[in-house]
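User: ABC transporter permease, Sulfitobacter aestuarii:
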Amino acid sequence: MEALTWTGMLAPLNLIFQALLGLLAVMAALQILASLLRLDTGGTISNADGTMALQPGAGGLLGRLVFYLFLALVALLLVYLLAGVLLGARAGIFGGMARQLLPVWVALAATFALSMRFKRRLGLYGKLFDSTVGMIGFAIVMFWVFAGVFGGVFDLLVTHDSLSQASGMKNKLPGTPLRGAEAGEYPWFLLGGDNLARDVFSRLIEGAWVVVKIAPFATLFAFMVGITLGLPAGYYGGRLDTFLSFLANLILAFPVILLFYLLVTPEIVLTGIPNYMALFLFAFPLIFLAILLNARYYTQPSVRTPLLIVVLGLGAWLYLSMVSTDGAIVRTPTYVIPGLPGFIDLFDIDPGILVVFVSVVFVNSPTVFRIVRGLALDIKTRDYVAAAQTRGEGPWYIMLWEILPNARGPLIVDFCLRIGYTTILLGTLGFFGLGLESESPDWGSTINAGRRLLSLYPHAAIAPALALLSLVLGLNLLADGLREESLRD
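Assistant: Predicted structure for ABC transporter permease:
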């Protein structure tokens, strides 16, 4: 069996792709030069109604040309993608990956079709599809979300076991055929093998699942902590604000990497400190929900009481399941604090993931607290807050149902950006071998393993590095799109 080339039967299209890419780069450079030389617009012309209009000029014409070349490049990439899905490995490495990622393409197409169809009913999320930058960022982010879910949970995308070693595949280049492939086994290593003869493509997909299951939820928990503490600090002010701000500034005074290093080192883990931190930090979503529902239905006890019982009962069950591992909340060499018994414990979080999760929440919470506090200080002076106070609404109702909804724009944007920061932090931890297991397929660990032979076999490190770069880029573009649309509200 021969090794795959990058594009296989689609090789004749490569010349067109290179030509379009080169023209796009040249025209973009000329457009920048035209803007520097103030050639963006030409003279003025008179319209029939007597108004004046500016002619496009050289810069405007170059801008249109850049736009059309970009559309042509996107169309050609779609041709590569569709041909790869249809031809599979006959279209080379790109075709093989396109065929493997077919569930992701279907999910993306369905998401965009439904979102575009009902975008006027979807609030700020629907308005995102009026922003080109936001749509591009959303597409990149959802690509990795779907790749992580379909590959890590349903095992639909990976071609080989990410931990298994294949004989003779150590440091093999992308497209190398698998030696002695059995019937039903995928016959190639699409992105080559790493220094332990493991499939880079499969580890890349499973590494996406590591990011997807940690970064968004850890950021969400950090927001729950920051919102629950930041709102009263900004609304009440005084000694409460001074005390909470001092604690936040105390944590922020330490370098982030040093804090991570201290929290995930084995010596700290053995003391049980991360478990105690989980016991404290994971309670904040429960506290937030309780206050939110109580403030909303305070005047309707017949609705409030059963709703709180159901929500807090399920929430407490989830909370205890999260902080309990193997029947213990804290387990050290000298003592054990018992948790939920196994038959009612819904799930166990891997100790390495728990430590990283808690560390991310602890490090991000003070920054979120300061943002929420600042927004609360500004919004509490608005007229609608004064109107709510005049109606006799309670402080928590005003904070959660008047101030917080009007602060959602900046918070949503920061949430997207903070997921990107968290993704970078996870990659940094994995690169230094902290927190997650050494054999974990997370992108940071994979980059660290591949960098040792970077000059000879760059594929093992470049693939996860590009994945990390693209996800963070997508999150930044998504945040830009959300910021643009939230400013129009």
